[in-house]
């Protein structure tokens, strides 16, 4: 079947002329598009700054290990001492060696991303 298709001569393909692009927009339209472009860029800049703030806040909370304190109400000093001794026995403070490598890598990557975003937004 394909040999029959190739045997029949077909006319050559011609591209249609493209409509003229000259003076497609008025001066007002061009100014409007420029201001919209500037608005879009400013919106993206603000979005990036919010991302930087969010990453910074997360990293600060990772670095400043929040203390998990519980408040216990007791009747007398004897009971308070007993609770304190139990709490001090069960309390374990994490060392930097106890933090899994995955979390360390993610934290380092977040710091690198933060620095990259800051250098892009503040070129001075």
TrEMBL record:
Residue ranges annotated as compositionally biased, kind Polar residues, are 83-93
Region Disordered: start-end pairs: 1-26, 78-105
Q: Which domain of life is it from?
A: Eukaryota
Q: Which Pfam families match?
A: Utp11
Entry keyword annotation includes Nucleus: yes
| Keyword check for Secreted | no
The listed locations are: Nucleus, Nucleolus
Q: Which UniProt keywords apply?
A: Nucleus, rRNA processing
Q: Which family does it belong to?
A: Belongs to the UTP11 family.
Q: What is this protein called?
A: Uncharacterized protein
């Amino acid at each position: 079947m394909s040999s029959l298709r190739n045997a029949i001569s077909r006319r050559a393909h011609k591209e249609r002329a493209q409509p003229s692009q000259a003076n497609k927009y008025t001066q007002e339209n061009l100014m409007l598009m420029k201001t919209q472009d500037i608005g879009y860029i400013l919106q993206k800049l603000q979005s990036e700054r919010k991302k930087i703030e969010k990453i910074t806040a997360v990293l600060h909370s990772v670095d400043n290990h929040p203390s998990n304190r519980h408040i216990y109400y007791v009747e007398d000093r004897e009971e308070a001492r007993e609770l304190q001794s139990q709490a001090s026995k069960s309390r374990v403070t994490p060392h930097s060696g106890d933090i899994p490598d995955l979390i360390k890598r993610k934290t380092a990557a977040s710091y690198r991303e933060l620095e990259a975003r800051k250098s892009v937004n503040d070129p001075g």
